[in-house]
Automatic annotation (TrEMBL):
PANTHER family: PD-(D_E)XK NUCLEASE FAMILY TRANSPOSASE. Pfam families: PDDEXK_2. This is Rpn family recombination-promoting nuclease/putative transposase. It comes from Beggiatoa leptomitoformis. It comes from the Bacteria.
Length: 304
């Protein structure tokens, strides 16, 4: 029996990569990035998808697995990540991931160290704990900044985070093309028909590609499995962070880790993270997804 929704959930791995991560739909990603980055990059004409798995400089280094990794015609790199649930040290991970396209630009022999720009984009299905009180700002653009001059010190490394739960505009309130993109990302699964305000040609293609009824049986099975993973993951992780499953302590994991450091309870809190990881394994969540969310290594997960 097919799911009752008309359109796919963009926060599932299947939905995100179906609409943004494959060659036939590349124009959707180009249009979205142009709206997001046009003040920085000008118009993106074309994109080339790059391998999602990136290895370190040697076999002993950790690797990175991106959701989407691509390059425009000027050699600028774009990492586009979908984050479905809260994760310890998410900002740290996004900074670490950006080091891979930096290192890849190194040339053999004499080299001037001139780098192409790198953009790391996080589309978040959660709100940063430190930003919970600020309901207005959901679109964060971060660059290296000189505190003394109050100017950008280096503009070739940009981190953009979109806290999607904070985007609450209704269809009637949509003003810009970018507003419409955010509305789709936030609400696609809930829509029963294409909204009258979203009549641009690019959205015609998006709604066509997002309609579940047009999928083959195999595509539908892949989407249904991806949807189950998304819902299970959101339920387990969000509950763990919000209610604090650290051996029964009523402390959220993110806040609890910081408090635990001061109180000497780090190991107890880490045990809570491991407990959550074990629950995710029991739910059949892929180990790569659990590692991404909890910050634990695959080796640690195999031992649980």
């Amino acid at each position: 029996m097919r799911v009752k929704e008309k359109y796919i959930n963009l926060f599932t791995d299947f939905g995100f990569k179906k609409l943004f991560g494959n060659e036939p739909n590349k124009d959707l990603l180009i249009d979205f990035l142009n709206e997001l980055l046009k003040k920085e990059t000008g118009q993106i004409i074309d994109l080339t998808y790059l391998p999602l798995e990136q290895l370190g400089q040697n076999i002993n280094n950790r690797k990175a697995i991106f959701d989407i990794y691509c390059e425009n015609e000027h050699g600028e790199k774009f990492i586009v990540e979908l984050q479905k649930a809260k994760q310890n040290y998410f900002k740290d991970r996004s900074i670490y991931y950006s080091t891979f396209p930096i290192q890849q630009q190194a040339e053999k022999g004499e080299w001037s160290f001139k780098l192409k720009a790198i953009y790391t984009i996080g589309i978040l299905d959660f709100i940063f704990d430190e930003d919970k009180q600020d309901e207005e700002v959901f679109h964060h653009e971060v660059q290296l900044f000189d505190k003394n001059t109050q100017k950008v010190f280096y503009d070739k490394l940009t981190y953009i985070y979109l806290e999607m739960p904070k985007f609450t505009k209704t269809e009637a309130e949509l003003e810009t093309h970018f507003d419409k993109w955010l509305y789709i990302i936030r609400n696609l699964e809930k829509l029963t028909n294409r909204p009258p305000k979203l009549q641009e040609r690019i959205f015609s293609k998006l709604f066509e590609q997002a309609e579940i009824a047009g999928y083959t049986d195999q595509e539908y099975a892949e989407y249904e499995e991806s949807l189950k993973v998304y819902r299970d993951l959101k339920n387990v992780i969000d509950t763990a962070f919000d209610e604090g499953k650290a051996e029964g302590k009523a402390e959220g994991l993110t806040e609890g880790i910081e408090k635990g450091k001061a109180e000497g309870k780090v190991e107890g809190l880490m045990e809570g993270i491991r407990l959550t990881a074990r629950q995710l394994k029991q739910e059949g969540i892929p180990l790569e997804v659990i590692a991404k969310v909890t910050g634990l290594s695959l080796e640690e997960l195999h031992q649980l």
